[in-house]
Amino acid sequence: MSAAGHALALRGLSKRYGSFTAVADVSLDVGQGEFLTLLGPSGSGKTTILMCIAGFVEPSEGAILLDGRDITALPPERRDFGMVFQGYALFPHMTVAENVAFPLRVRKLGAAEREAKVRAALDLVQLSAFGERLPRQLSGGQQQRVALARALVFEPALLLLDEPLSALDKKLRAELQDELKALHRRIGRTFVNVTHDQEEALSLSDRVAILNHGRLIQQGAPAELYERPVTRFVADFLGKSNFLAGTVQEALEGGFAIGAGATRILQAATSTPPIGTPVLLSLRPEKMALLAEGETAENAVAGTIAGWSYLGAGYALNVATPDFGTLRVTLPTWNAPIAPREGLEVRLGWSSAASVPVLDDVSPDDAA
Fold this sequence. Notes:
Elements: E1 8-17, E2 20-30, E3 35-39, H1 46-54, E4 61-66, E5 69-70, E6 81-84, H2 96-106, H3 111-124, H4 140-152, E7 158-162, H5 170-187, E8 190-195, H6 198-204, E9 207-212, E10 215-220, H7 222-227, H8 232-237, E11 242-252, E12 255-260, E13 263-268, E14 278-283, E15 289-290, E16 299-310, E17 314-321, E18 325-332, E19 345-350, E20 355-358, H9 364-367
Parallel strand pairs: 3-8, 3-9, 6-7, 7-8
Antiparallel strand pairs: 1-2, 1-4, 4-5, 9-10, 11-12, 11-14, 12-13, 14-20, 15-19, 16-17, 16-19, 17-18
Helix pairs in contact: 2-3, 2-4, 3-4
């Protein structure tokens, strides 16, 4: 299959159902050959956007452009997009080869050309020996590979993926993530994926667009979103985070200091908010360390282990502190400085560059 990435653009896309707004004024660009994931909780609008792109849902406002051409009014069958669903949607009475050949039959390709394309598609997903089997004779992962082959066999302009791995168990899902990423690199096509799984979004995507309540909150490369979230929602939804609230006490070279109760925290920054400004910092659990007696750090707080879990590769600690409530800390088990136990008094340390200021965008509805 030849590589043929196409560019997609959404311009002011909105979708309303009566008084309910499912998608609100979303503008987004997907580059040629890019793997973009739409990520968000249930009800965030990500699937509605995908269905608008596919042509199954008509937007209330806005435009959808493919390589600069407006396709908003085109029916699904004229968009030439492949689609993979969560539930595979294979025909149970057809063999694997017949399932993969179905889009080619609809397009009235000749038998010889169909056979060659089906063989190439099955080779692509490493199922060349399974063409004569029925779907019920395959595992869940194999069925999903068949669905991928069927969506790619006619060389679509875009591949749309609607939570394609969510029906698989955790281990198989991780394996399919690796295969899907490698497949994308090999064929160079443009993929648009929808998921609520943060790890899947981080591992698969060139870029992630995070949505909430129908709005685009932040977009960027996975590492950028994880390391530099702009809002509390993004920091809390994409991975885990601690939130340290305080007020600006002092401007410093390369940052500022905030105060919370009796605790003073240093924060690296290129600009300083006015003295007295409330500030919220996001601090990832893995960016803190347990300090040994006499050890110092730019920032340090004392606390007591209120609970802990063994996760194999690491320990997850809940540390109760006087000024920031319970902080979550993760430690690798292979070099943990202590054996965790409830009631143990500890000191936590981190650098001023480990945390990042975020906007406190959580409403009462979000918190609930």
